[in-house]
Amino acid sequence: MPWYVLFTKPQNEKKAASRLQAMNITAYCPLRMEVRQWSDRKKKVEVPLLPSMILVQLEEKERNIVFQAPGVVRYMHWLGKPAVVTEEEVTALKEVQAAKNNPTIQVETIQPGTKLDLSSMGFKAQEGTVKYVSGNQCWVVLEGLGFVIKMEM
């Protein structure tokens, strides 16, 4: 069965995923730990790795059943068809999420136009081009997928 990408209402990723799982639909919302600071304390919270998106695995003929869950907005489309995520990409996301010690990437002199090999980050044979660098962040264009990812260095 293929994995599809669903858009959710803002900050509804975890709730929508749990509602879909309650409907016996395989749903996956990759999460990461982040330290948030309030005026009186710091706290570790789980935030979605893909903002306003979750992954669902179901048959093509059952795709409309997801709209019964509150918080689900629409499917992501690519080239006029629903975007499909491969099993290898979902496995890579799960491995990154499960890793306690995520490897840190050190980049010394990175300039716009530099080609980066992203296969070590779970992207199968994917190369990205640095589009923009600002402070400790850079935007990398994935031409094959039509996406731009923001990386913190």
TrEMBL record:
Keywords of the record: Transcription
SUPFAM superfamilies: N-utilization substance G protein NusG, N-terminal domain (SSF82679)
Domain NusG-like N-terminal: 2-93
Xref: CDD domains: NGN_SP_UpxY (cd09895)
Pfam families for the chain: NusG
InterPro entries: NGN-like_dom, NGN_dom_sf
Protein name, per record: UpxY family transcription antiterminator
UniProt organism field: Arenibacter antarcticus
